[in-house]
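Project outcomes to date are best conveyed with an example. Our students and postdoctoral researchers have been running inverse folding experiments weekly, and each run begins with a structure described purely in tokens. The record below, which covers 643 residues, was selected by the lab manager from last quarter's runs and is presented without edits.
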């Protein structure tokens, strides 16, 4: 893992290496090597490294091409190295990951970036041509930012380091601030800072004196259907691609861990790793509630039983139950995180659990930590597009049978299934829109279930940005089911970089292999009949995982409560947060963006009363209040207000 900072001149004088080294102390975390630097007449680089694979310890930084004079600095892991090396006419032992990045770009230019599999981000400077290329993989787990200055480009993996150079303004971007409050993102290139942009995933960005040119080299989309001979062939093909995605991670010599639940997604990762590397220990870290409602506790006890059954099936999986969730939305410990990353973490209710799992992983010596994000959009999809597919192909008797079977399996009314999963997909879009208008069903407002002021959302341009966004509520409700997965798979919230940097600061490379583009391309090519059969959702996943998950997991019909002890977590900070909001001198920007009066009113309500009242909408506590408190805490740090 490498975090880097760089500046290239497009006419302006370069800063000193000492200035860049000073800013580079914000890169990485305590376990990273000391900052180092390199410079030429037109470029200065600084970096900190944490070696996760044997070859990275001896890797040369930066990679310099003696023929072209280009230099490349990058981070990440390149998969399918043998195939790539063969195409380049070399041997994988003769080239590290960053060298493969450089050679691919030298051979094929921007097209070479699209041939790289894995997770990566790099900057390549061609001093002779005066051109900088920034590139990023689809995962987006290597953050990469840039600032266009007057005669220079500043770039790097950490906003705090870029800001520490003094060459980029700390002015907040109002629209992206609003996105952090609502917990969703529309602009893939915006950051919390007005003059700092991020490189969007699966893209290359070329910058020279004439300006910027962005090229998106891959996007999730449904291609021509893959036709195999039998159901067994689909199962074997899916297993093969899942193995291909995960085997590259075994190059890491450090211990591997999984944020492990009792569901399909993370369990499939842990089980596959255990089968691919039977001689290695795979550590599992499972969040369990400290207490809560009896019914929720029973469900969570059943989930932990699934985890234990998985460990019995694969003896090299060692599972730990993690109860701690002590990070609060306005925890003072976040101040160090803000200083080291320059960003809030986003979604504090989610991160209080994940940071506890990450801390347990760090204590266990884990360096690569997996999660199951994206699985329900890829190979564990429930297959809702089947119904419309059967209708369009004229298989109406089979459609009737599937609707009846789905109703029996889920306990839902057949009429609801017909509307949500069949009629909604097949009626013309204009007719559907007229139906919404006739029933007086406006699209969900982006400020709904949040404490973002509507006036601020409008004045900042956020409302207009969302109207044009592919994942806007207006657009999503008119999309057909088969069109929705590619849209969601292409969304990367702006606050996700804060999460990544928080993990990296702990010395952890956190990855979501079920969002790998190889798996996505494969899954989006499969016929709908593979994902649902006889009323049973996740039909493909149940068959693919039959050789690696316990029977009781495969037989689960629903999903586990992701935060059964939400109330207990909120109790730890509710009253103190109410006192802070009441007594603090408010941040000027927070007053404009957050409905602090409504926040104070909610915090003044006894938590038990609010949870009872909002039982059907826990987002009020876990999202709206927690997000507003955390963003307010960040703004107070940013404005250097004295609590």
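After processing, the design step wrote out the following sequence:
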């Amino acid at each position: 893992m490498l975090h880097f900072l760089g500046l290239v001149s497009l006419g302006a004088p370069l800063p000193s290496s000492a200035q860049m080294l000073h800013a580079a102390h914000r890169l990485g975390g305590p376990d990273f090597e000391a900052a180092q630097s390199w410079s030429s007449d037109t470029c200065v680089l600084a970096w900190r490294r944490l070696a996760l694979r044997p070859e990275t310890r001896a890797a040369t930084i930066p990679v310099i091409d003696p023929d072209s004079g280009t230099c490349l600095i990058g981070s990440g892991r390149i998969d399918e190295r043998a195939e790539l090396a063969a195409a380049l006419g070399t041997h994988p032992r003769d080239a590290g990951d960053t060298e493969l990045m450089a050679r691919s770009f030298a051979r094929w230019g921007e097209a070479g970036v699209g041939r790289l599999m894995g997770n990566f981000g790099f900057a390549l400077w061609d001093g002779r041509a005066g051109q900088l290329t920034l590139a990023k993989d689809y995962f987006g787990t290597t953050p990469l930012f840039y600032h266009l200055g007057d005669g220079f480009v500043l770039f790097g993996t950490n906003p705090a380091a870029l800001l520490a150079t003094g060459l980029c303004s700390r002015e907040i971007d109002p629209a992206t601030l609003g996105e952090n409050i609502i917990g969703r993102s529309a602009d893939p290139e915006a950051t919390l800072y007005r003059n700092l942009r991020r490189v969007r995933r699966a893209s290359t960005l070329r910058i020279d004196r004439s300006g910027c040119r962005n090229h998106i080299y891959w996007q999730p989309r449904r291609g021509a259907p893959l036709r195999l001979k039998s159901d067994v062939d689909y199962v074997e093909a899916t297993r093969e691609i899942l193995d291909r995605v995960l085997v590259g991670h075994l190059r890491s010599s450090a211990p591997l861990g999984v944020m492990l639940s009792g569901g399909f997604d993370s369990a499939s990762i842990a089980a596959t790793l255990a089968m691919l590397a039977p001689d290695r220990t795979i550590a599992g870290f499972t969040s369990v509630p400290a207490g809560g409602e009896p019914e929720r506790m029973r469900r969570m006890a059943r989930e932990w039983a699934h985890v234990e059954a998985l460990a019995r099936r694969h003896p090299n999986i060692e599972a730990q139950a993690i109860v701690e969730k002590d990070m609060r939305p306005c925890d003072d410990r976040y101040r160090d995180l803000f200083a080291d990353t320059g960003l809030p973490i986003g979604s504090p209710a989610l991160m209080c659990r994940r940071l506890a799992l990450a801390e347990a992983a760090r204590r266990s010596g884990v360096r690569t930590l997996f999660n199951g994000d994206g699985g329900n959009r890829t190979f564990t999809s429930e297959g809702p597009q089947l119904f419309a597919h059967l209708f369009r192909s004229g298989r109406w008797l089979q459609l009737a049978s599937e609707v009846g079977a789905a109703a029996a399996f889920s306990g839902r009314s057949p009429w609801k299934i017909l509307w949500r999963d069949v009629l909604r997909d097949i009626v013309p879009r204009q007719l559907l829109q007229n139906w919404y208008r006739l029933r007086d069903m406006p699209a969900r407002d982006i400020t709904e279930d949040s404490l973002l002021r509507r006036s601020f959302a409008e004045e900042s341009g956020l409302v207009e940005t969302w109207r044009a966004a592919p994942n806007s509520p207006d657009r999503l409700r008119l999309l057909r089911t088969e069109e929705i997965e590619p849209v969601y798979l292409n969304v990367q919230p702006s606050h996700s970089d804060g999460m990544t940097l928080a993990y990296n600061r702990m010395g952890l490379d956190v990855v979501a292999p079920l969002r790998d583009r190889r798996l996505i391309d494969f899954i989006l090519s499969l016929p709908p009949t593979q994902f649902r059969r006889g009323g049973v959702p996740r039909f493909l996943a149940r068959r693919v995982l039959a050789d690696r998950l316990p029977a009781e997991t495969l037989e689960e019909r629903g999903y586990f409560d992701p935060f059964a002890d939400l109330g207990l977590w909120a109790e730890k900070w509710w009253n103190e947060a109410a006192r802070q909001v009441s007594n603090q001198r408010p941040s000027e920007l927070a007053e404009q963006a957050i409905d602090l009066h409504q926040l104070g009113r909610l915090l003044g309500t006894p938590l038990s009363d609010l949870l009872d009242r909002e039982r059907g909408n826990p987002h009020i506590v876990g999202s709206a209040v927690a997000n507003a408190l955390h963003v307010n805490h960040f703004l107070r740090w940013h404005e250097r207000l004295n609590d």
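The longest helix spans residues 294-313. The longest strand covers residues 117-126. The training component of this project remains on track.
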